[in-house]
Amino acid sequence: MRRSFLFAGLSASALLALAACGDGATEDGSPTSTSRHVGHGGHVGHGGHSTTVSSSVSTSSSTSTSSGKPTSSSTSSSSSSTSTSSSTSSSSGTSTSSSTSSSGSSTTSSSGGSGGGLFTAANPWNTPVASDPTSPSSAAVVQWLADNGGWGTGAVQIDFSIDVLSADASTPFLAFTPTGDFYTPDCDDVPFPVPSGGAVEGEQGYSCTQGGDCHLLVVDAPGAKLYEMWRADITGGVFSGGCVAVWDLGRTYPANLRGDGCTSADAGGFPIAAMLFTADEVAAGEIPHAIRFILPNERIRAGTYVHPGSHTTGSTSGGDDAPPYGVRLRLRADFPLSSLPSDGARVVARAMQQYGLFLADGGNIALTAANDAFTQNKWADVAVDSHALSAIQVTDMEVVDMGEPMTNTDCVRNP
Questions:
Q1: Which residues does 175 contact at the CB level (< 8 Å), separation at least 6?
Q2: Would strands 291-295 and 244-248 be described as parallel, antiparallel, or unpaired?
Q3: Fewer Cβ in 10 A, N or C end of the chain?
């Protein structure tokens, strides 16, 4: 379901009221249940930054660490494909430049590297690593993870709860009130695009009611930017939110992305939407980018990240051989793809072999796909549900060569 924008002449307060309503429609063909669920709950703050807090905004859905940053205990439950409605075509299929196709096919960036998916410029998530060497610590990391519970739910599952919305030239950009989940200088205090009829993660509309991560992801095609907000909430005409990261879709970012020690709308400092695979990509037969994956905090190396990650959290407590934030896992080349239940599942697995998975957040449901409410193809059409990859074990993965482990410092933003 898609709507065109009819609200250009309305006041900001009226737009907020309309955005808060949502339509709550259910999309046929959802891969599992039709109820949305709470977010992953792994985006935990780090010490050393000043925090911007509005005294008028409640942040009761999270507890605080000694540094004043939140500690979330919420985790994903069963995956969902509940529909909302948006004004334009969406997800990773949104065109961000004349060279990006709706199927997410590869493009050539100005730097000469391969761009794919949302980003037209080459970046770690759209750079193939099938032939890259494994890390010398690969065996130890994989064995540690296998010995300590493996994937968050034991078997690998897919979460479908995050929408990727699209903005066009008529989409209003609205000011928001930063909450205690907004950190300076990590986060961008800028007007945020709010398409009509959209939804935050795990909800029917823009109101964050269940205490989840409530990510709000919007691709601004005219500006070639990706706007991502953590714990967004529009309730009663008031727009408040946590950390915002604005990404330039035509930029090749430095090795440390937005800067060492800097979080984003995801705990590890990554752009979320860039690594959400879509039903349209699967239907086209190729996912041209790495996939976002998450683990429980106790299975993430304590206080450590590796590039291209740029941040870790105070709630990580895994041992010295646990995977750190920013690590890239890759499905082994000889994994028997014929053991998977559908062609769609095999498309996802091939992306895991070609581009791998980046550890980006904390929680239980290992892999994250985009909700199909705004895509042309639906997950049921491509025979991918939350258990489509359950045959893949942690021991089928390997660690791609990674850089030196880093510990959090105060965020220093890159220009």
A1: 12, 191, 192, 239
A2: unpaired
A3: C
Alpha helix (H) ranges present in 172-289? 279-284
Q: Which residues are paired to 318 by β-bridges?
A: 301
* Tokens, residue 299: 């299975």
Contacts of residue 244, defined as CB under 8 A and 6 or more positions apart, other chains included, come to 176, 182, 187, 188, 189, 190, 192, 227, 228, 229, 230, 265
Distance CA 232, CA 187 (A): 13
Q: Which tokens hold the place of 241?
A: 């939110």
Half-sphere exposure of 344 (CA within 13 A, CB side): 21
Cα 52 to chain centroid distance, Å, stands at 23
Strand partners, 164: 217
C-alpha 26/C-alpha 235 separation (Å) is 21
CB distance 167 to 178 below 8 Å: no
Question: d(Cα 219, Cα 227) in Å, to the nearest integer?
Answer: 6
Which tokens is 51 given?
A: 């925090």
Phi-psi region of 104 (alpha: psi -120 to 50; beta: other; left: phi over 0): left
Q: Give me 112's structure tokens.
A: 């000469």
Task: List the structure tokens of 272.
Answer: 């979320």
